Amino acid sequence: MSFETIAWQDEGVVMIDQTRLPLEEVYVTCRNAEEVARAIRTMVIRGAPAIGVAAAMGVALGMKRQLDEVGEAGLSDRFEAVCRLLAATRPTAVNLFWALDRMRQVWSQANGRGLPAAEAVKLLVAAAVKIREQDIETNRRLGALGAAVVPEKARVLTHCNAGALACAGYGTALGVIRAAHEQGKIREVLADETRPLLQGARLTAWELQRDQIPVTLITDNMAAHFIAAGAVDLVVVGADRIAANGDTANKIGTLGVAIIAREFQVPFYVAAPCSTIDFSLANGGEIPIEERDREEVVAIRGQVVAPAEVAVYNPAFDVTPAAFITGIITEKGIFKPEELLPRLCRN
Amino acid sequence: MSFETIAWQDEGVVMIDQTRLPLEEVYVTCRNAEEVARAIRTMVIRGAPAIGVAAAMGVALGMKRQLDEVGEAGLSDRFEAVCRLLAATRPTAVNLFWALDRMRQVWSQANGRGLPAAEAVKLLVAAAVKIREQDIETNRRLGALGAAVVPEKARVLTHCNAGALACAGYGTALGVIRAAHEQGKIREVLADETRPLLQGARLTAWELQRDQIPVTLITDNMAAHFIAAGAVDLVVVGADRIAANGDTANKIGTLGVAIIAREFQVPFYVAAPCSTIDFSLANGGEIPIEERDREEVVAIRGQVVAPAEVAVYNPAFDVTPAAFITGIITEKGIFKPEELLPRLCRN
User: CA separation (Å) from B325 to A37, B249, B269?
Assistant: First the structure.
């Protein structure tokens, strides 16, 4: 891999600007928590695991800056405000809230041990860096496990970008594809372009080309045509939040692909780290779905494609009921949706 | 309706330029058959019934110009060349070939009666103008019939543009919606944007707004989300070619909507004139599917949205098997797919 999605550096949190790919490969440096929050909101960085890493780094960076500005004295009071800032960026991906909880634990343990604030901030930085490293390890593990369900000479369809760009690296759905490719199993990846923000066209096609994995781009509405024609052996997508019963929120359009795949008996897998599972929600109906700006639908890269003032719906995610999901590929194994709660909660 | 899709005028065939809607309302005049053929190929005019009208007018215009240029003597030899030119524009919509056959009949009858070539050309013009008028009448009739299947306060989803712009006027799928709207039955139309060429965003949204029919634009991949949520009471789409068994070729993406609609028991109707039915084909597998240029997928209104050189598939149509179709709304009645051949061929 010749790019880094997100990295901690002395001057701040460095991210590849995903709004400008594939035309430009530009890295931006967020120098405080506000800039990290804006990068998440405007989708400079996106993808549930990557948002989690960014939020953790945002907390560490925010507290580092607070330490510089206000000193050790008032620091503890600022912690929750920094977390709230980052929590308010995007509602659906649970990895963001999971990462903030991890950072809260680090902070309160450090405070509980009576460490000086400067030491506690160092622990926050170390924790954020570790979340990033663990994410890559997790993806390599789930990719290796997931490769087992990919048949030889597979034609695999994916939606949106659950790739290295959506994570600290390697990817979830694309991690499975990468691992299967390393085993010589991938004949072709069909990448849905994924309107409105075209993460499939802009990001999935770009990162698979980089890795010389054969990829063909299609519009979202072509998936049924190719699945019906027998041109797809397997579907694998990522997830933004998985409820306890296996219902899965993922990028808008995932539900349609899942319904079509089942109609033609094509296996449909979700690939995600366990941090994407929200056991506090009984089912997908409880997952908050972000509604984004109408401009994303009526204009594409600044080109207006619809009449002015037309009404628009723009839900960023949909929920695929567990019944449509063949299996959920995690770093701890591949589970049927109904096995998640009993098997993972008893670990 | 405050616009005309296509009209015969002294100087040539005048069309609203559908590639420039909704940003500009520009009319172009095709002054010979070559210009009509180019307008069809480049989708200045599109939609199966509109293509049929354009092809008929293209033949009339072509022969009128030939008469001016070569005189009466060599005229008969030119007829088939003009037909071939127009037949080679687009392969899927059968209305084009149906219209050319009608023009051939007119020509051979005129020749059979020994009419002077100038008189025969006048008959071609009259026939083309009549095909246009009949198309509007046909749509009003099928619209009125189709409105009966639309429930009160209906939320109707449509894909692509099977509207006044796709026909000489009034529309097929949008004809049903217009007639239902005149009866006060339409609560909301959900318009799929219809990538790659965005006929839903650019054309359907535009013409429904013109008629003050409430329309909300969504990306294609949102259809499943809204159908699953119970926000759609009925789907109605047009058709480019219907095989004898009811299998229906229509704009790419139609198949996916049909599969999703059936999953949630939402009625899925095809609205088309009988001229769209090709009884010479036993089933949809025999319908030729046009593959269009990759540029339509990788760039949107000139804005590149994918990596250079990425492989692309771009089938312009898909085939929805009859099993997914609740009914086919024609000017001669509403038929179950399996009733088409027995009931219409015995008329």
Answer: 47, 12, 6
Q: Residue B212: what pLDDT?
A: 97
Domains held by chain A: number: 2
**Which residue reads 């009448």 in tokens?**
B137
Residues of B in Cβ contact (< 8 Å) with A219: 195-196, 220, 252-253, 297, 314
Distance in Å, alpha carbon of A291 to nearest chain B alpha carbon: 12
Give chain A's residues under pLDDT 70: 1, 346-347
Contact B305 A198 (CB under 8 A): yes
Are residues B108 and B75 part of one domain? yes
Task: Answer whether A313 sits within 8 Å of B226, measured CB to CB.
Answer: yes
Instruction: Give mean pLDDT, residues B313-317.
Output: 98
The verdict on whether B211 is a catalytic residue reads no
Mean pLDDT (chain B, rounded):
96
pLDDT class of B245 with cuts at 50, 70, 90: very high
Q: Could you tell me which chain A residue has the CA closest to the CA of B20?
A: A305
Residue among B135, B192, B220, B240 flagged as catalytic: B240
What are the tokens at B276? 């769209």
pTM attached to this predicted model: 0.96
Residues of B in contact with A309 (CB under 8 A): 209
Residue B1 covered by a domain: no
Which of chain B's residues have a Cβ under 8 Å away from the Cβ of A190? 313
ipTM computed for the complex: 0.95
Distance from CA of A306 to the nearest CA of B (A): 5
Nearest C-alpha neighbor of B209 from the set B229, B189, B233, B183: B189
Q: Is the domain of B76 the same as that of B166? A: no
| Chain A to chain B Cβ contacts (< 8 Å) | 182
Cβ within 8 Å, pair B315-A225: yes
d(CA A316, CA A330): 23
Contacts of A217 in chain B (CB under 8 A): 297-298, 306, 310-313
- What CATH number is attached to the domain comprising A24? 1.20.120.420
Catalytic residues of A: 240
Burial class (CB in 10 A: 0-12, 13-18, 19+), B230: exposed
Asked whether residue A233 falls in the same domain as residue A188, the answer is: yes
Same domain, B118 and B185: no
Model pLDDT for residues A61-86, shown as the tens digit of each residue: 999 999 999 888 888 889 999 999 99
Boundary (domain end) residue, out of B101, B126, B141: B141
Pairing of strands B186-192, B154-158: parallel
**Where does the pLDDT of residue B1 fall: very low under 50, low under 70, confident under 90, or very high at 90 and above?**
low
- Domain residues for the domain of A333 are 148-346
- How far out from the chain centre does Cα A171 lie? 9
pLDDT tens digit sequence for A238-253:
999 999 999 999 999 9
Q: Which of B95, B113, B141 is the last residue of a domain?
A: B141
Answer whether the bond into residue B22 is a cis peptide, omega within 30°. Answer: yes
